[in-house]
Amino acid sequence: MLFKIALKNLLGARLRTFLNVLVTAFSFFLILFMSAMYNGMLEHAKQVTMDTEIAGGAYWHPEYDPLDPMTFEDAHSALPRDVQLLVDQKKAFPVLVSQASIYPGGRIMPAIMKGIPPGQNIVNMPTDALSGHDDIAIPVLIGKGMASDTKLNVGDAFTIRWLDTDRTYDADEGTVVHIMDTENFKLDMSHIWIPLKKAQTMLAMEGEATYVTYEKGLPPVQDKGDWIPRDINYLVQDMEAIIAADKPGAQVMYMILLALAAMGIFNAQVLSIFRRGREIGTLMAIGMTRPRVVGLFTLEGGLNAVLAAVATLIFFGPVLWYFGVYGIPLPIDYTEMGMIVAKRLIPVYTIGLVVSTTILVSIIVLIVSYLPSRRIARMKPTDALRGKAVA
Amino acid sequence: MENNTVITINNLVKRFPVGGEFFTALKDIDLTLNKGEFTGLVGPSGSGKTTLLNIIGGLDSPSEGQVSVLGQALNDTSHGERALLRREHMGFIFQSYNLLPVYTVFENVELPLILNKVGLKEREERVAQAMEWVGLSNKTDSRPAMLSGGECQRTAIARAIVHQPALVLADEPTANLDAENSHHIMKIMLQLNHELSTSFIFATHDEKIMAYLKRIIHLDDGQITEDEKIENPKASA
Q1: Which of A22, A143, B107, B115 is surrounded by the fewest CB atoms within 10 Å?
Q2: Is residue B115 part of a domain?
Q3: What is the pLDDT of residue A104?
């Protein structure tokens, strides 16, 4: 009964309802869209990281800490038996990591030198560009960001200096054989990639590696020695942390949008109760109890949220769909800022996101509808009939 | 409900706080109204007509005294019980119609039946009948803003009698109407009084209404000064 009356009141109020619903729907759309963009960034970053770097996970040498280059010196050994087996079966590939100094254009720059098998096809890196360069002392693969920083082009030669396992410095000439365009800044910034065998020879670490990356869907190996298994969740956590650092800003924006929608409805409810005093009195006079009148006004506010959800679907649904399919081109390259952000960002709408946003908006709308409606309970029917609202 | 008694009021006093003082709106009111009466509370502005009507309707409560309406002592009832009494057994007609502007005429009249949880089919029949009583069968889909004052008041009457209450309380029902519409409205209510045996109580100082009343209770300064029974009202003859 209340629902029918509330719906009639809402639809009958035409322009007032339309404006309220539109404001709520717009906020709903923006919250949904921004959350989906955030999801999209996160998903994209994870996907790129997995495609280009992590694959199914890795086994790390116990001394290896990618955030501490001082550990690289000791983070190498022969592979544990089962890990080596994976490599032999081409289900994994080893990487040997070392600190190095490079001298592009006569300048000295610190670099992370990584040896990788050119024939690997587990991660999406153009490592095959490193093969077939017998005439070059050290073929080098770098990213676009690194090329820009060092002003190196394909064919340019530069000096590489490294410390081998006997703690002896050595140097030779590296030549850029390929510049890769990757969204994963972790493969690019300060990185030089060389063939694994070459790296092992240079560092006097034959048959050794720092970590092994394996393909997706493999179960953990039994004999991993003291090497540490790192699963996808662990390996993407730094990426998630970078993106999560952006979350407070986004949350402030959600709060502002929600507050806008809430204020619109709160204002409409307060105005309703002041302007519709006589109507409230009439409803009481014809036998509606106070709790029911409160319920009616709260329900009217709540129905705003439902109509807003429908309006979002009708008015903004096509926009959400368009961006969901075609994405949004971003004007700047975030790679140089140390973020994995697609050049065309595609928002990801999950059921969880849609349901949680709907529930959140609905609860807030119900609360801001209920709070002013409580005043009705203090209203005397005779005052209401005279159009006198409670203070 | 005992016998035919619809309303029994004993020693009713109503005071309103005004500043730090109390203003006495009704003093020592004793009154009994029977079923089917067509009664007017008549008096100048501020004489206590509307206050008495509101107390009878359970919209306001007495400061002292006993009020019993349709067998229920209002002093002992809660807000909810009084709302139920109004919903099932009373109808209200207001000076300014108090129609809900976003509803059509049909929907306005239907509202008391919805509150009484009457089924859809029966609702449609009873609304159609009430519309016929007041002569508005051709205006069911109109909204109040599209109606004249007389039509609005006829809609309000239809809303007040659609659930066939035992008692209809009308507060200055003709105050906003011209003479022709006032007579039309009164004739409709008189006819319903005859056909449905519904008791009507009017708060009014309109001379045109008085010509239809079978009983006139004169109020002045919150007290009953005269209780006049009229055997053959002029206008109803």
Answers
A1: A22
A2: no
A3: 94
Residue A79 is given by DSSP the state P
Domain encompassing residue A28? 2-51+242-385
Q: Is the dihedral of CA A38, A39, A43, A46 positive or negative?
A: positive
* pLDDT tens track for B186-204: 998 898 898 888 999 999 9
Pairing of strands A57-60, A228-230: antiparallel
Q: Is residue A235 part of a domain?
A: no
Same domain, A43 and A87: no
Residues of B in contact with A281 (CB under 8 A): 98
Q: Angle at the Cα of A378 (from A376 to A383), degrees rounded to 5?
A: 80
CB contact under 8 A, A382 and B60: yes
Residue A135: how many CA atoms within 13 Å on its side-chain side? 2
- Cβ <8 Å between B87 and A286: yes
Q: CB–CB of A285 and B114 under 8 A?
A: no
CB contact under 8 A, A287 and B103: no
In this predicted model, what pLDDT tens digit does every residue of A185-222 receive, in sequence order? 889 999 999 999 999 999 999 999 999 999 999 998 98
Taking any CB pair shorter than 8 Å as contact, residues of chain B touching chain A are 54, 57, 59-60, 79-80, 83-88, 90-92, 94, 96, 98, 100-103, 107, 111-112, 114-117, 159
Q: Which of A12-16, A111-115, A276-280, A350-354 has the lowest mean pLDDT?
A: A12-16
Total domains, chain A: 2
Q: What are phi and psi of B98, to 5 degrees?
A: 50, 45
Q: What is the CATH number of the domain that holds B214?
A: 3.40.50.300
Question: Does one domain contain both A289 and A181?
Answer: no
Same domain, A181 and A42: no
Residues of the domain holding B83: 5-97+149-229
